[in-house]
């Protein structure tokens, strides 16, 4: 790596540029080859300048936040990787604005400390604030689309900064307009409307969280208790980053929960009964429009892939069936081979094709 001289504007160093830069250390999988060029930008202006530079020269661009939802190919990235390292946490009453580079989980902790409800169950989700709208991050009964009001983004097609109200972000389960058109918007700032519920959380919706808290679903609990309970539940599943624990060298859930049409669900029930007996039934949650969401983890386990599955350097987490992990010596190809084995095994057993949640770069499943 040969760093260029940093460009300084006034007294603020806005960006750092490195060549032939390893990307693996920037991802939670710790996988992937180098980028031709890695730009680390610490202001919105530096982010926009780097994006424009790449677009003007026709250079492929990869935006990296915390690298916790990225599978980068072993050959790396033939272009410019732009690491968003902007900072900014601003509260005005219940209105919150975060710079894209803010650490999401730290920001959640600060909202809880400020006595504001709405994102406390999203504690412990790794990565940056700017990436939260990309797949509409969610966990334990909350997702960002419920509290997010606006996304300020650089629109690469229009060549200008735009403010998109939540209604224009196309949010759905683990999806958004940003994920749909990954080469169009670079998120600069994310705005939320939180709730002052007198130190209490939003109503607890997720059954497992309610059980752990000893309350009925719909009740509110002290904010800090909600956050700590979620963090404890997550840690037990290897879903809180811990460099010493290979179960967390992952991208969290590798597959999304399948959302099935009524016919697809009927067929799944038939295949499950055929394979597991007449009383067996896959989990089913109504998802609107007659569609049914089922559990990827349930399907994976019933297809024969249990926690810890695998004999190579990429294995299923010992704490959670949905997390594929790097045990330390894996390559991206090892990881993808495991992912394909699980996907194909579930399809052969139940006729459902699982879709990967993390974004793949230079490779595909
Ligand atoms: C242990 C673990 C647990 C997890 N648990 C959850 C969970 O409970 N719920 C959940 O939803 N996710 C979970 N994830 C996935 C991940 O943390 C989230 O998707 C997170 O939002 C990714 O943020 P990031 O900054 O790391 O994004 P990156 O991995 O850096 O990038 C992901 C994608 O977003 C794009 N991107 C990033 N920043 C920007 C930006 N500013 N503008 C435009 N595009 C951008 C990237 O180009 C890439 O396509 C988990 C991951 C791990 C490792």
Structure characteristics:
alpha+beta, five-stranded antiparallel beta sheet, globular, disordered N terminus, five-stranded mixed beta sheet, 365 residues, binds flavin-adenine dinucleotide, 24% helix, single chain
List strands and helices in order, with pairings.
Blueprint: E1 7-9, E2 12-22, E3 34-41, H1 44-56, E4 61-64, E5 70-72, E6 77-84, E7 89-92, E8 95-99, H2 104-113, E9 138-139, E10 142-143, E11 148-155, E12 160-165, H3 177-180, E13 185-193, H4 207-213, H5 223-236, E14 259-260, H6 262-276, E15 285-286, E16 292-293, H7 296-302, E17 314-316, E18 324-326, H8 332-350, E19 359-361
Parallel strand pairs: 3-6, 4-6, 5-19
Antiparallel strand pairs: 1-2, 2-3, 7-8, 8-13, 9-10, 11-12, 11-13, 14-16, 15-16, 17-18
The structure holds flavin-adenine dinucleotide.
Would you mind describing this structure in some detail?
With about 375 residues, this protein is α+β, with helices and mostly antiparallel strands. The chain is built from eight helices and 19 strands. A five-stranded mixed β-sheet has the order 1-2-3-6-4, covered by helices on one side. A five-stranded antiparallel β-sheet has the order 7-8-13-11-12. Strands 14-16-15 form a three-stranded antiparallel β-sheet. The radius of gyration is 21 Å and the shape is globular. Mean pLDDT is about 95; it is low at about 1-10. The structure holds flavin-adenine dinucleotide. Flavin-adenine dinucleotide binds near residues 65, 137 and 248.
